[in-house]
Amino acid sequence: MKFHLEGSFRLSAEAGDAVKDLEEFFGGAAEILKKGAADGKGAEITSWKLGNTDISVVIDSDRYVRAHDAVLRLRRPLADLLGKKYRVGVRGIEISKYEIEVASERSIDHKIPHVKEMKHEGGVLTLSLEVDESDLKNQVPDRIVSLLDEKLAAEDYGGKAEHWELLWESEPRVPKFERDPTEELVNRGWIKHGASRGQWIYGPEGTHLFRVLERIVLEEIIEPLGYREMIFPKLVTWDVWKKSGHALGVYPEIYYVCPPKTRDPEFWEEVMDYYKVTREVPVELVKEKIDNPIGGMCYAQCPPSWVFFQGRTLPNEDLPIRIFDRSGTSHRYESGGIHGIERVDEFHRIEIVWMGSQDQVKEEAEKLKECYTRIFEEILELRWRMAWVTPWFMAQEGKSGLSEMTGAGTVDYEAILPYNGDWIEFQNLSINGDKYPRGFNVKAQSGEQLWSGCSGVGLERWTSAFLGQKGLDPENWPEAFRERFGEMPKGIRFL
Fold this sequence. Notes:
Layout: E1 2-11, H1 19-27, H2 30-33, E2 43-50, E3 54-61, H3 67-86, E4 90-103, E5 115-121, E6 124-129, H4 133-137, H5 140-156, E7 162-169, H6 181-187, E8 191-193, E9 200-202, H7 204-225, E10 228-229, E11 235-237, H8 238-244, E12 256-257, H9 265-278, H10 283-289, E13 295-297, E14 313-314, E15 321-325, E16 329-331, E17 346-356, H11 358-379, E18 384-391, H12 392-395, E19 409-417, E20 422-433, H13 435-439, E21 443-444, E22 451-458, H14 459-470, H15 479-485
Parallel strand pairs: 10-15, 14-21
Antiparallel strand pairs: 1-3, 1-4, 2-3, 4-6, 5-6, 7-18, 8-9, 11-13, 12-13, 15-17, 16-17, 17-22, 18-19, 19-20, 20-22
EC number: 6.1.1.11
Keywords: Aminoacyl-tRNA synthetase, ATP-binding, Cytoplasm, Ligase, Metal-binding, Nucleotide-binding, Protein biosynthesis, RNA-binding, tRNA-binding, Zinc
Binding site for Zn(2+): 302, 351, 454
């Protein structure tokens, strides 16, 4: 990767008397521009020129001491030289040209902020940046470089969002059912499509099934391990997603929340009158009267809970903290990927969260794995497997192998759906490292860096996995589950 910067230092007055000192300064600038870099690496001043009230410079560099860092490094010692001896101040830095070159077999089609032009020739991708001194100080070029690395690495990784590695697989079990469970649920009247896309209404039978699964989680996990119930917000603001890291890429999948610009009925009278006359909601007019999005509906359940702990210190004797939430729905815009009850826009989930020292978080994860294994093997009797899932951005850092991991990462639980032969992810367990404690500034009394983990129990996914293998007839269900289910509730009849 190469950096080429052309810019100038704006001066408060002419500095013609300082030519010799400036020649000596720029001639010896290598010590400043290569500090911290390996031998032969760093930035270099290709040329410089003293103008009437400015000093223009051309800087070329590698990625060790990047050109924008180099020009910032020069400002203070240059200001000290001119100010003390010649009473000339350095008022600012102007950037007239800044290009970044990187070897790449492909171009990038997406527009990148602060990049005014992008071209791809001869295996080299060149970005022309539009930045000022404030952008340099705010590390905008560094973030562009990181984004560029991310996009190219993602493409080199084959476009996959994650790396998958099998950990364990159960013994084969003969399925008791080989049809789409959602279709059967609809045919029997246990569920019905809601008014919104990817949304279902669950009748007494389907709801009872959900409650039985929920009770299994409570009795087999929550109560034995000592988790305490909390209620997490289901409207999540941008501030929360910025701290949790979701603001980096959540946009295509969230349902946005926009408040009205005012509650004044007169402001909305036109909308209300339109509906009264036409019996149609004037959506375009409504759009004019709502404010900018303040965030979105719950996407990942645990981030808003961290506001409860934000900026606080936890006593050592209270660690690990174990909490869970089951208070409402989560929402993800699945686009064209919705199918049945296993891939929906609105879903029900029990979110399990724990935090403590690194060892405590890892130990808690193992306890949860034991609980899940007992449930899936002895109560639900599923054919299932576990896989280590590494996001591609961790894989590109050489952390895709299990032996190379620090312990942070995700385990996915997958179950076979006999009717189509596909494996469906129906459970996950993540050790998030220090991601959330750092993001929300949560500390331990001991001073040791806190870690955290989370595990979401999706009731739609558990139901799909269970019914997909066992069907809807209780006589085909495992005895341990049948005992917990009890009597089938009476459904809703229609004439």
